[in-house]
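A further point concerns the way the authors explain their paired sequence and structure data. An entry of this sort, consisting of the sequence and the corresponding backbone structure tokens, reads as follows:
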Amino acid sequence: QVQLVESGGGSVQAGGSLRLSCAASGRTISNYAMGWFRQAPGKEREFVASINWSGRSTYYADSVKGRFTISRDNAKKTVYLQMNNMKPEDTAVYYCAAPSATSSSWKNREREYDYWGQGTPVTVSS
């Protein structure tokens, strides 16, 4: 099993930046894809970004492509989400997620993830 704890959320003005961190404990994350999802008020949770086990392959939702960057440090068991040029529509609770199955590629489907953090809220004001 793996426990995930997100941090780095907060309030920022449109055009600003935030960096989220996801610290894992328990099982290693080195052989696993990792993902970030978000849930805005009144909406379903949606995929944001995923990274493969080595960090060499990433995948993004169209809504964040070119503005967000996912990265990882397997030695520190930590995954990051750098968010730049933020928009009010980025306002949401952001969740880190890990699967129970190893793979060589990233994963963009919620059902592929088995472990979730508690979420960190992000608010972007206009």
